[in-house]
Amino acid sequence: MLDNEEFMLENSPRELTQNPLKKIWMPCRNAHIAQRRVCMTNCPTLIVTVGLPARGKTYISKKLTRYLNWIGVPTKEFNVGQYRRGCLKIYKSFEFFRPDNEEGLKIRRQCALAALNDVRQYLSVEGGQVAVFDATNTTRERRGTIVKFAEQNGFKVFFVESVCEDPDVIAQNIVQVKLDSPDYIHCNTEEAIEDFMKRIKCYESSYQPLDEVLDRDLSYIKIIDVGCRYLVNRVLDHVQSRIVYYLMNIHITPRSIYLCRHGESDLNIKGRIGGDSALSPRGKEYAKCLRKFIQEQNIKDLKVWTSQMKRTIQTAESLGVPYEQWKSLNEIDAGVCEEMMYEEIQEHFPLEFALRDQDKYRYRYPKGESYEDLVQRLEPVIMELERQENVLVVCHQAVMRCLLAYFLDKTADELPYLKCPLHTVLKLTPMAYGCKVESVYLGVDSVNTHRDRPENVRVQRTTEDALLTVPAHL
Amino acid sequence: MEPPQLEHLRRRRCDSAASVPQFCNSPTMIVMVGLPARGKTYISKKLTRYLNWIGVPTKSFNVGQYRREAVKIYKDFEFFNPENEEAMKIRKACASAALKDVAAYFSKEQGQAAVFDATNTTRERRAVILSYAKERGYKVFFVESICDNPEIIAENIKQVKLGSPDYVDRDEDEAMKDFSRRIDCYKSSYMPIDDEKDRKLSYIKIFNVGSRYLVNQIQDHIQSRIVYYLMNIHVTPRSIYLSRHGESELNLSGRIGGDSGLSPRGHKYAKGLATFIRGQNIKELKVWTSHMKRTIQTAEALGVQYEQWKALNEIDAGVCEELTYEEIQENLPEEFALRDQDKYRYRYPKGESYEDLVHRLEPVIMELERQENVLVICHQAVFRCLLAYFMNKPAEELPYLRCPLHTVLKLTPIAYGCKVESFFLNIEAVNTHRERPGNVDINRNPGEALQTVPDHI
User: Which chain B residues have a beta carbon less than 8 Å from that of A248?
Assistant: First the structure.
């Protein structure tokens, strides 16, 4: 926070201009405007995982990284195991991890340092906000090294420890993510499991979990038995608070999330964006097919969510089951461009049309929203999707792109161009470290509403260049 | 689909068309646990206020209140002596009476959550509550507050106990002594929630006012929200300053919404605000604005860094943006009447309702709880929502709270509530407050509809 005195003005206030892309009001004299992004901390944060092998550290690291990036906090994970694989081309056996293997220890320490170095590069030089340091970090000594490193570099530290003694969970972990690891490519399943169990044993004797008394000045969350219980200590700031909230809402119970758009609408047919129109005849046909599809999927305890716009509600009505309406799932607000065709937008607002093509993620329609705004609006939906099990979300093109980007870890640049055609259901099933996607086209024709980024995004482009990629419509 | 006029007024609880799904299944009993002076009532009241604000009908039941009804005059700590059989009988009866009222709140008043505020320090007492809840299909979530920091406890006692009806005729030292002995009465029989024996229960343990938490078996959405909220509140003294932007050009012409700049008087206010803020000598003040020109212009005059929140934007009046009330009455008389009938839930066509606004503002409130000294420069409807949260105003009153231009409200949490100081910075401005008119019928005449419209150019 800058000193009051530094900016003291005795005369007239600064003139404001509205940034044409994001429609943000800023003073002309280009002083730093703090725009409410998620992370307003000045210090970057180092998240450090702690735990024996097969406790879900990498799963948590990847998921947390994906979530933080999606909500706009530049985050990167650093998996020390990867560094080790980079260093030690061939993994022979668990012997490498024996606590008395001096050679092994040296290499592992080097790898940890190399990773920390890259962390420093990412946070101090490359503009990263959060780094997730994914390793066992099971000794107090190792954690002390990291804390010191963070202090020297002005990073905050937040530990995420996963503690689990349930043999079923551990076995499941190993089957899901260890057997396919590069380490075990040449082993059969039994060999791999046997070796991995011995690997875990190597860590057990020296494992010093975070201690309520000894570590009372550290900031951390201890996750016990995959979320039955949490111990949270000294949450320092907003980002840490969000991280804790997120970690407390995720689970690993198998389930699927179905994403689809409303059936084709009357405005879709006319090539108009936004609005609140009803389903076209083909859209109604789709709704019936969706019902059949859902019934055939035989889903246990399916929850159905829609937006508060007529076309998603009409689609859900066909299913014949209770559904919940979320205003947050409403389509992106196109402001002054609501219900216009792209041709009309080009005619009336050629500048806006070009700006949007230049940066579709951050571009905010005049009196409307941007994809960036949408993501913020959808965050509670994502949080609740994490809590839930089987859910069908009937939504809209831009909304579906945002949700899909979250599940499939797509960047902000890719997000606005993800293909989400009408009359197609995406079934997302979390698996290993990611998400299996099955795309089911329900066989009912519809217009295409996907407009690719045209070649020419310059403000002075011709109308033809601007409208090159507009999909066909009535 | 229902006729469009009624759509935005349709509000049932479970198949509600509110901004968010209501997540209502079984009602939830939130049960406080802890020795006296550990902040249980503070947490109960605050949590109740928060849950009501976000739309979960909640009520707190303070067993101490029941006891004060039953035993008109409080003599001394001996009442709480575990050997005092007569008193034990009364105390048990009070707890039962409170439980019965909880049941009535759930079944007859459509409550969704009840906070059962008592010490509940023995396993036996908690077992009674658990079986009562189980019989009726209520979920139970325990909130235990554990604190052994003598300074915090002493501060608690000073802030809320000395002023209690129990000690109204005592002098401070006497009261302190008696209360300490009261705490001692509980200590010997206190059995905190046990991490092993109680591992199937859902609970949060709060240690030393939030430096550490233990969270066990969160069952559902509402418990997850409660935990998140409890982990974000603090008791560090601070003040929150709320103000609207300076008078704007559209304010002058009686038009709602829009994104206009400040009027000359508005600019004067901004300067006045800067002077006022400097005079308050606030430690590490954060300043927040919306994304709209008028709040940003106001903040610019302060000469300090500020953060822009889109969530603080004024309520979206949809098709009515930039209209005067007269124009709304002329073009959309039915909408105008519907709004007067239920101003909280009414959603402008292609716009928002106050109910939507509250949902939008929830992250702002959460961050306000985390922060210390903050100045929020916002808009009339937004201000009303924030104020309703801090002052515990119900949905019916919220849209009619008075939030005049050019007036700063300073809110300072004290005891169980909030001290409010209002500062009019002595710069004239139009009045933008429109009272609910006498006649809200759709068939009213324009004169009746426009009766309460404030003056403008």
Answer: 215, 218, 224, 227-228
CB count in 10 Å sphere of residue A17: 12
Tokens 């985050």 belong to residue: A75
Gap between the Cα atoms of A462 and A468, Å rounded = 10
Instruction: Identify the closest residue of chain A to B228 by CA–CA distance.
Output: A245
Q: Does B172 touch chain A (CB under 8 A)?
A: no
Q: Does B304 touch chain A (CB under 8 A)?
A: yes
Binding site residue list of B for substrate = 244-251, 294
A30 has a chain B CB within 8 A of its CB: no
Cβ-contact A422, A264 below 8 angstroms: yes
* H/E stretch holding A193: helix A189-204
H/E run at residue B117: strand B113-117
Q: Which candidate from B17, B305, B359 shows the least CB-CB separation from A34? A: B305
Which residues of B are documented as binding site?
A: 244-251, 294
Contact A265, A276 (CB under 8 A): no
Q: What are phi and psi of A115, to 5 degrees?
A: -65, -45
Q: Is A296 exposed, middle or buried (0-12, 13-18, 19+ CB in 10 A)?
A: exposed
The pair of three-digit structure tokens given for residue A305, joined into one six-digit string? 């969510």
| Of B374, B409, B408, B354, the residue nearest B19 (C-alpha) | B354
Q: Give the model's confidence band at B457: pLDDT under 50 very low, under 70 low, under 90 confident, else very high.
A: confident
The whole-number pLDDT of residue B5 equals 34
B378 is catalytic: no
Whether B299 contacts B403, CB under 8 Å: no
With 0-12 / 13-18 / 19 or more C-beta atoms within 10 angstroms meaning exposed / middle / buried, residue B95 is: buried
Integer Cα distance of A289 and A133 in angstroms: 46
CB-based contact, A201 to chain B, within 8 Å: no
Q: Would you say residue A6 has pLDDT above 70?
A: no
Give the pLDDT confidence of A258-278 residue by residue, as tens digits: 999 999 999 999 999 999 999
A262 flagged as catalytic = yes
Instruction: Quick: pLDDT tens for B16-57.
Output: 344 455 555 799 999 999 999 999 999 999 999 999 999 999
Token couple for A311: 């076309």
Q: What is the tens place of the pLDDT at every residue in A464-473?
A: 999 999 999 9
How confident is the model over B286-310, as pLDDT tens digits?
999 999 999 999 999 999 999 999 9
- 3-state SS class at A309: coil
Helix%, strand%, coil% for chain B, nearest 5: 45, 15, 40
A54-79: buried (b, 16+ CB within 10 Å) or exposed (e) per residue? Answer: bbbbbbbbbbbbbbbbbbbbbbbbbb
- B13 close contact with A: CB closer than 8 A: no
Strands A130-134 and A45-50: parallel
Residues 6+ apart with CB under 8 A from A257: A385, A390, A391, A392, A393, A407, A427, A428, A429
Angle between helices A310-317 and A281-297 (to 10 degrees): 50
Buried b or exposed e, range B389-428, using 16+ CB within 10 angstroms? bbbbbebeebbebebebbbbbbbebeeeebeeeebebebe
ipTM of the complex: 0.91
A16-73 tens-digit pLDDT = 888 888 888 888 765 555 554 444 457 899 999 999 999 999 999 999 999 999 999 9
How confident is the model over B310-362, as pLDDT tens digits? 999 999 999 999 999 999 999 999 999 999 999 999 999 999 999 999 999 99
What are the C-alpha distances in Å from B210 to residues A234, B193, B214?
A: 8, 17, 10
CA of A259 vs chain B CAs: smallest distance (Å): 18
For residues A426 and A310, the answer to whether their CB atoms sit within 8 Å is no
- Cβ under 8 Å to B: A residues 153-172: none
> How is residue A220 written in tokens?
């951390």
